[in-house]
Amino acid sequence: MPTLITAQPRLLKTLGTLKKEREIRVEPNPDNLYTEAERSQRKFRPLKISKNLQQKLPYMEKPKVLAKLKEQKRVAVIKEPEARKVSELETPTLTESWSCTFDIEI
Q1: What is the pLDDT of residue 49?
Q2: pLDDT tens digit string along 62-87?
Q3: Nearest to 64 by CA among 49, 52, 85
Q4: Spatial separation of the C-alpha atoms in residues 80 and 78, rounded to whole Å
Q5: Domain ranges in the chain?
Q6: DSSP labels for 54-71?
Q7: Could you give the maximum distance between any two Cα atoms of the chain, in Å?
Q8: What is the pTM of this model?
Protein backbone atom coordinates (compact mmCIF):
# COMPACT_ATOMS: atom_id res chain seq x y z
CA MET A 1 0.00 0.00 0.00
CA PRO A 2 1.50 3.39 -1.00
CA THR A 3 2.01 5.91 1.73
CA LEU A 4 0.74 9.43 1.33
CA ILE A 5 3.24 10.87 3.76
CA THR A 6 6.82 10.98 2.57
CA ALA A 7 9.97 11.55 4.57
CA GLN A 8 10.75 14.87 2.85
CA PRO A 9 7.92 17.12 1.75
CA ARG A 10 8.15 18.45 -1.77
CA LEU A 11 8.63 22.25 -1.63
CA LEU A 12 7.26 24.63 -4.22
CA LYS A 13 9.52 27.29 -5.69
CA THR A 14 8.40 30.85 -6.10
CA LEU A 15 8.21 32.52 -9.47
CA GLY A 16 11.15 34.75 -8.56
CA THR A 17 13.45 31.83 -7.77
CA LEU A 18 12.46 30.02 -10.97
CA LYS A 19 13.22 33.14 -13.06
CA LYS A 20 16.54 33.58 -11.28
CA GLU A 21 17.57 29.96 -11.90
CA ARG A 22 16.67 30.15 -15.59
CA GLU A 23 18.05 33.71 -15.97
CA ILE A 24 14.82 35.11 -17.34
CA ARG A 25 14.64 38.90 -17.31
CA VAL A 26 11.39 40.80 -17.36
CA GLU A 27 11.29 43.96 -19.47
CA PRO A 28 9.57 46.81 -17.64
CA ASN A 29 6.35 48.28 -18.94
CA PRO A 30 7.19 51.64 -20.59
CA ASP A 31 4.01 53.15 -19.13
CA ASN A 32 5.37 52.56 -15.63
CA LEU A 33 8.72 54.25 -16.24
CA TYR A 34 9.31 57.82 -15.06
CA THR A 35 9.03 60.51 -17.70
CA GLU A 36 9.93 64.17 -17.20
CA ALA A 37 6.86 66.41 -16.94
CA GLU A 38 6.71 69.30 -19.40
CA ARG A 39 5.27 72.36 -17.71
CA SER A 40 4.66 75.74 -19.28
CA GLN A 41 5.91 78.90 -17.61
CA ARG A 42 3.17 80.51 -15.53
CA LYS A 43 2.33 84.15 -16.17
CA PHE A 44 0.94 86.07 -13.22
CA ARG A 45 -1.14 89.20 -13.46
CA PRO A 46 0.23 92.32 -11.79
CA LEU A 47 -0.89 92.80 -8.22
CA LYS A 48 -3.73 95.29 -7.83
CA ILE A 49 -4.11 97.00 -4.47
CA SER A 50 -7.29 98.92 -3.69
CA LYS A 51 -7.02 102.64 -2.90
CA ASN A 52 -8.36 102.13 0.62
CA LEU A 53 -5.65 99.63 1.37
CA GLN A 54 -2.97 101.83 -0.24
CA GLN A 55 -3.87 104.65 2.12
CA LYS A 56 -3.36 102.37 5.12
CA LEU A 57 0.05 101.11 3.97
CA PRO A 58 3.26 102.66 5.30
CA TYR A 59 4.99 105.03 2.88
CA MET A 60 7.83 102.69 1.85
CA GLU A 61 5.44 99.87 0.96
CA LYS A 62 3.16 101.86 -1.33
CA PRO A 63 3.21 100.65 -4.96
CA LYS A 64 4.56 103.91 -6.43
CA VAL A 65 7.52 103.94 -4.04
CA LEU A 66 8.28 100.27 -4.67
CA ALA A 67 8.29 100.83 -8.42
CA LYS A 68 10.78 103.69 -8.10
CA LEU A 69 13.05 101.61 -5.87
CA LYS A 70 13.09 98.77 -8.39
CA GLU A 71 14.03 101.14 -11.22
CA GLN A 72 17.05 102.49 -9.36
CA LYS A 73 19.50 99.73 -10.13
CA ARG A 74 23.12 100.68 -9.65
CA VAL A 75 25.81 99.42 -11.96
CA ALA A 76 29.22 98.60 -10.53
CA VAL A 77 31.97 100.68 -12.09
CA ILE A 78 35.46 99.25 -11.95
CA LYS A 79 38.03 101.91 -12.66
CA GLU A 80 41.53 101.45 -13.95
CA PRO A 81 44.32 102.17 -11.45
CA GLU A 82 45.15 105.56 -13.01
CA ALA A 83 41.52 106.68 -13.02
CA ARG A 84 41.10 105.51 -9.43
CA LYS A 85 44.04 107.67 -8.28
CA VAL A 86 42.63 110.71 -10.08
CA SER A 87 39.19 110.27 -8.52
CA GLU A 88 40.75 109.86 -5.06
CA LEU A 89 42.56 113.18 -5.49
CA GLU A 90 39.40 114.93 -6.70
CA THR A 91 37.08 113.83 -3.89
CA PRO A 92 37.87 115.27 -0.45
CA THR A 93 38.20 112.87 2.45
CA LEU A 94 35.97 113.12 5.49
CA THR A 95 38.65 114.78 7.61
CA GLU A 96 39.39 117.42 4.97
CA SER A 97 35.76 118.41 4.55
CA TRP A 98 35.23 118.81 8.31
CA SER A 99 38.49 120.46 9.13
CA CYS A 100 38.19 123.93 10.53
CA THR A 101 40.10 126.00 13.03
CA PHE A 102 38.72 127.53 16.16
CA ASP A 103 40.32 130.62 17.56
CA ILE A 104 39.28 130.81 21.17
CA GLU A 105 40.61 133.51 23.44
CA ILE A 106 40.15 133.18 27.13
Answers
A1: 80
A2: 777 666 666 667 777 888 989 888 88
A3: 49
A4: 7
A5: 51-89
A6: HHHS-GGGSHHHHHHHHH
A7: 142
A8: 0.25
